[in-house]
Structures are given as C-alpha cells and as structure tokens.
Amino acid sequence: MAGHPPAAVREKLVSWGVSDYRSIFSRAVGLNVLFAQPPAFEAVSEEFLRNYHRYADALHRAFLASQPHRALTAGNFRFELYASGEYSRLLEAKWAAE
C-alpha cells in the first residue's frame, strides 16, 4: 500500500535524509486525491495550510478505503521526485538544448 512507496521514490527520499518517507509518500497520495494540480493560494484556508498533514492523512485513508483491491506499486505512478536545485538544473539543460 502507500506505506510502501515505489523503490525509486523511497530511495530518493532516504537519500535526502527523510526518515519518515512512508508518511511523506502517503500524504502526497492523499493530497493528490484532492488536488490534481497545485491549488491557487487563495483556494486553501489558513487552517488547511497549518494542518495539511491531518487532512492529507485523512484523504489517504479515504483513498485506501475506496480502492481496497488496488495495490500501490511503481507501475501505478508516473512521476519522478526532484529537489528544487536538481529540477532547476534539468530545466536549464532543457532550455539550453532548445
């Protein structure tokens, strides 16, 4: 389940020093249930921003309850994780190639 992120995700989070990678990943899954794209700042309340982790945990539990047959595996996810500097370098390389 989401407590077991794809190996590449787990390895990158651990390499960044994230000790509770299971919670980070499950919260990301929960937030993705609600927001397919990052919301506009005005679309979320201060309460949500201060306590997003509680909402994300609840959303993750709801997702799992609605998908009891679905295993969360690397094949279910089409994304990569990047640190901000790493992503900036990728963008710079792409722009330089264009």
Average pLDDT level: 83
Supply Rg: 15 Å
- Largest sheet geometry: none
Name the structural class.
mainly alpha
Q: Uncertain regions: pLDDT < 50 for 5+ in a row?
A: none
Succession of helices and strands: HHHHH
CA(first)-CA(last) distance: 40 Å
Helix content: 55-70%
Number of helices: 5
Give the total of beta strands: 0
Overview of the molecule:
- This protein is mainly α and 98 residues long.
- 58% of the residues lie in helices and 0% in strands.
- The protein is built from 5 helices and no strands.
- α2 (21-34) crosses α4.
- The longest helix is centred in the middle third of the chain and has 15 residues, at 52-66.
- The radius of gyration is 15 Å and the shape is globular.
- The termini are far apart.
- The mean pLDDT is 83.
